[in-house]
Amino acid sequence: MARPEEKAQAMLNKWVKMREESDPTSKLSRDARRREKRPFLASHCEHVADAERFRRQIVREIADGVRRIQNAGLGEHAIRDLNDGINKLMREKWHWNRRIRELGGVDYNKEERRAMLLAEKEGGTAG
């Protein structure tokens, strides 16, 4: 069982953390915001910066999935599951791109189409 001093210190730490999370300028508050869960629907996001952060998160998840799918030791079933997950993330990214455009940000769908067409002209593949 913890000693009374340890219990008091733990309560003080909880109180300090709670106070800093409520202060929007504190580093702890920004870290908590960074760990915020991505909304299920892109339309629930109201700020361009948050939408772009969630889009970057999806792009990282897609890149991780592509890296894992290139493992030669995976079975066909695992590859299909990974591919389904990547396709779902691609659809979700498209929705976030659209939401960013609605909020007044960059039109990433247009930029990605332009990059793909440019890569095809150069004889490579985009991706």
Gross geometry: flat
Largest sheet: none
N to C succession of SSEs: HHHHH
**What percent of residues adopt helix (DSSP H or I)?**
over 70%
Arithmetic mean of pLDDT: 85
The class by helix and strand makeup works out as mainly alpha
Strand content: under 5%
Q: Low-confidence parts, pLDDT < 50 over ≥5 residues? A: none
- Evaluate the radius of gyration: 21 Å
Number of strands: 0
The number of helical segments is 5
First-last Cα distance: 56 Å
Properties at a glance:
mainly alpha, 5 helices, 127 residues, flat
Short description:
Helix 3 (48-69) packs antiparallel against helix 4.
Helices and strands, with pairings:
Blueprint: H1 4-22, H2 27-34, H3 48-69, H4 76-102, H5 108-121
Describe this structure in words.
Helices cover 71% and strands 0% of the residues. It has 127 residues and is an all-alpha fold. Helix 1 (4-22) packs across helix 2 and helix 3 (48-69) packs antiparallel against helix 4. It starts with a helix and ends in a 6-residue tail after the last helix. The mean pLDDT is 85.
